[in-house]
Amino acid sequence: MFPYYLDRAWRSLRRDVGLTLLMVVAIGVGVGASMTTLTVLHVLSADPIPEASHQLYAVQLDPRPALGMDPGEEPSDQLTRTDAEALVRAARGKRQAMMSGGSAAIEPQTAGLAPFRVDARWTSADFFPMFRVPFVAGGPWSAADDAANARVVVITRALAEKLFGQIDVVGRSIRVETGDLRIVGVLDSWSVNPHFYDLHQGTYGQSEQLFAPFSTSRELKFGVDGSLDCWENADDPHGLGAPCVWVQFWVELEDAAAADAYRDFLVGYSDDQRKAGRYQRPPNVRLRDVPDWLDVQKVVPSDARLQTWVALGFLFVCLINTVGLLLTKFLRHGAEIGVRRAVGASKRSIFAQLLVEAGLVGVAGGALGLGLAYLGLWAVRQQPTDYAELAHLDLPMLFATIALAVVSSLCAGLLPAWRGCQLTPAIQLKSH
Q1: How many structural domains compose the chain?
Q2: Which of 1, 195, 358, 410 is the most exposed place for a label (fewest CB within 10 A)?
Q3: Which of 271, 296, 321 is where one domain is finished?
Q4: Any bridge partners for residue 186, and if so which?
Q5: Is 123 left (phi over 0), alpha (psi -120 to 50) or beta?
Q6: What is the pTM of this model?
Q7: Domain co-membership, 204 together with 82
Q8: Are residues 283 and 141 located together in one domain of the fold?
Q9: What is the C-alpha separation between 84 and 98, in angstroms, rounded?
Q10: How far is residue 378's CA from residue 381's CA, in Å, rounded to a whole number?
């Protein structure tokens, strides 16, 4: 019966071109606006590392002075260098990585290529396996390299091609600031958004192009970017023992039991530091996995959520208008429905045929909405925001656009279709 219903729906829509266009435009505009904002929200709230997001934990400690302490206060989201290095040495997790953002000047050896700066990350060896970073050549440095302040570096594919015109560059050296570093690995295409491991360097956009051991960066005095919070004066705020938090620390734990054990370890560590006189506050620790971390850090902008609700409200208004247009259309053809009922068509078949007609409007509206969503996302990409370039309609959201249009039109068609199948044949035939 479906092909028959589809044929009748097509014929009916062609008879009332004006009403049909109004309904298609109403559905299309509502769906286009909704899918534009939903796609942006989908991009901003996506799990950046779904294969390990519940095994990676951000570590927070509270070494600040007791003066001004507020019970239940959230500790800093970064650690002192002293604490970060102590936790790495303790090695209580499956993997652990300390890090900070930075930038570095590179002096190319290629003729005609002027010196330039790149975003960098100073970290420890576990960073790469912990965050599932793919390599196209070579691999990460070792823990022994961390301990020895080794002059090694990992670079991205793009940087390797820019400097050498190829990616097979393991073993070659590049001059970073004032030192020569040996390339031990080249990353394949890798970018996580949002940059959950360090939200102080920008939440979205391109990742770093150069990675070097944290210990090496401190010995060579490479520049550090990001947030620095000191509660006392320090000659070298990035040095060991400085009363400043500026290092991000992540640990990989296999399950909830391991997370509980590590949390207990952090409490014990805080107690030991308090007894030693370094800490003044009672243990105040946090251990959050990636989803919890992003939620606490409020990574998704509040205006993105607000815009999504506004767009969905606009879609609802469009659906109300579509309900009115469908009612007008179906009741206008009451005589035709009366004839079909008189010759034996059941209420169920009339209801199904009218609902198919509403669904056909939804398909057409979905096609229009898809085009408007692409246009809306193009407009988003022109905005001066760090997430603008990520606003693309992927395959799941493409199917969601069509599904939203069809489901919305079917919902809008329920009342008109029910009213249409309730028409009394005798009254309709007599009045016409």
Answers
A1: 2
A2: 1
A3: 296
A4: 137, 155
A5: beta
A6: 0.78
A7: yes
A8: yes
A9: 6
A10: 5
Contact 31, 404 (CB under 8 A): yes
In a domain, 50, yes or no: no
Rounded to whole angstroms, how far apart are CA atoms 56 and 287? 10
Q: What is the pLDDT of residue 41?
A: 80
Written as six digits, the tokens of 26 are 């109403």
**Lookup: tokens for 380:** 């988003």
- Domain identity same for 154 and 223: yes
Q: Is 382 exposed, middle or buried (0-12, 13-18, 19+ CB in 10 A)?
A: exposed
For residue 166, being part of any structural domain is answered with yes
- Residues of the domain holding 202: 56-296
Last residue of a domain, one of 296, 315, 332: 296
Q: What is the CA radius of gyration of the chain?
A: 31
* Same-domain status, 286 and 327: no
- Same-domain pairing of 151 and 290: yes
Question: What SS3 class is residue 192?
Answer: coil
Three-class secondary structure of residue 370 per DSSP:
helix
Same domain, 61 and 156: yes
Please, what sign has the CA dihedral across residues 62, 64, 66, 70? negative
> Alpha helices of 224-346 — where are they, by DSSP H?
256-275, 290-296, 302-332, 334-342
pLDDT at res. 108? 87
- Phi, psi of 66, deg, nearest 5: -70, -25
DSSP state of 247: B
Q: Cα–Cα distance between 318 and 28 in angstroms, integer?
A: 9
CA distance 318 to 67: 57
Cβ neighbours of residue 272 closer than 8 Å, sequence gap 6 or more: none
Question: Is the bond preceding residue 416 a cis peptide, omega within 30 degrees?
Answer: no
Do the domain assignments include residue 230?
Answer: yes
Do residues 282 and 221 both lie within one domain? Answer: yes
User: Residue 131 domain-assigned?
Assistant: yes
Of 238, 235, 241, the closest CA to residue 278 belongs to 241
Q: Could you read off the pLDDT of 15-25 as tens digits, one per residue?
A: 777 777 888 88
pLDDT at residue 428, rounded to an integer: 44
Give me the residues of the chain with pLDDT under 50, please: 426-429, 432
Location of structure tokens 């506004």: 310
- Alpha-carbon span 222 to 119, nearest angstrom: 12
178 and 236 share one domain: yes
Q: Of 313, 325, 312, nearest to 22 (Cα)?
A: 325
Backbone torsion region of residue 344, taken as left when φ is above 0, otherwise alpha when ψ lies between -120 and 50, otherwise beta: left
